[in-house]
Structure formats: C-alpha cells, structure tokens
Amino acid sequence: MRMKPFATAIERAAGDRLAVVRLKNRYHGWNGEEQTPLVDARWALDQIRARYAGLPIALIGHSMGGRVATHLAGEPGVTTIVGLAPWVVEGDLRWGRPGLNVLLMHGVKDRTTDPQHTERLAEELRAQGADVTWRPIEGEIHGMLRHARMWHRDVADFVVASLLRPELTQ
Fold first, then answer.
1. Which of 22, 107, 141, 149 has the highest CB neighbour number within 10 Å of its CB?
2. Under 8 Å between Cβ of 136 and 119
3. Which residues contact 164 (CB under 8 A, 6 or more apart)?
4. Which residues contact 110 (CB under 8 A, 6 or more apart)?
5. What is the pTM of this model?
C-alpha cells in the first residue's frame, strides 16, 4: 500500500506516455537464500519485457523493495532505479553502470534502515558509472510520511524524466 501513491503520482506526471505496474510479493520478508522478493520481481520483469519489448524500465522500491531494485539494476531493459529508504546490505552485488539513472532518498532520522548505508551505496554506484542522485531528507523517518507529497512528486518527476529521455524513446 505504501507504494500506491507513488504509482498514482507517476501516472499523473506521465499521462499516457508510461505504463505503471505494481507488484505485490507472494511472501513477506527476504526469506534467506530463497530471496523470494527477487524471484517475484524477476517474474514481473519477464512479463513486462514480453509486453513492452524494448522499452526502458524503472524499478522503484521502499525498504526491502529498494534492496530488490538495486539487485535487479543489471537486468536487461532496466535503465532507472529508485531506492526509498532502501535496505542496504554490505556484500550485496552492486550493478552500477553508465546509462543507469539512480535516485536514492532516505530520511536522516530513519532508525529502521540506515541512511549512511544508502549514502555509501550512492557512492559505490556512482564509482561504477551510474548517474546517481542522493537525497537525504531532513526530519524524515522510515515511513516517508512527514513530507509525503514531496517524496511522491520528486520520485514521479525523476522517473518520468529518466524514462522519457530522447535517447531512450527514439
């Protein structure tokens, strides 16, 4: 439910120029080596690539969903990732590369996931060639509720600008 307002904001900002798809995971949690959110997200990516072949894909996720997005940044067609207070785990693979647009936002008062880990992730992805925007949000905690409209607007603007770049739409 937390991601529904982001989907709505992107739909409004994009008009009929983008398709927005939301994924509801089958299970809660990362589930150790099974990594069930990655299984579900890869299935969804396969469906999206089949339906919208050749079009750029943005992945947007909060907390564990942000971890999923960073894991799948190297998947074919993925050109944009947005991590919102992402769960960053040392040792996870990083898929930064030229041509990848990344927005990482994190409330500086978050005690569920660590904004300093997110800042380090931004640095790592940037060092690998990704175009990274790092936005620490003053006064915000994990729930992204204090400045909700700003989160929704900024994510929508970033995703629309990233996916509708001329080099991706020609």
1. 107
2. yes
3. 14, 17, 18
4. 85, 140, 141, 142
5. 0.93
d(CA 43, CA 38): 8
**pLDDT tens figures, 132-151:** 999 999 999 999 989 899 99
For helices 148-163 and 4-14, angle between their N-to-C axes, nearest 10 degrees: 50
CA separation for the pair 88, 118 (Å, rounded): 6
Angle (CA) 86-89-90 rounded to 5° is 135
Q: Which two tokens stand for residue 96?
A: 């930064």
* Packed helices 64-71 and 36-51: angle between N→C axes, nearest 10 degrees: 60
**In the chain, at which residue ranges do the beta strands (DSSP E only) sit?**
57-62, 78-84, 101-107, 131-137
CATH of domain 4-169: 3.40.50.1820
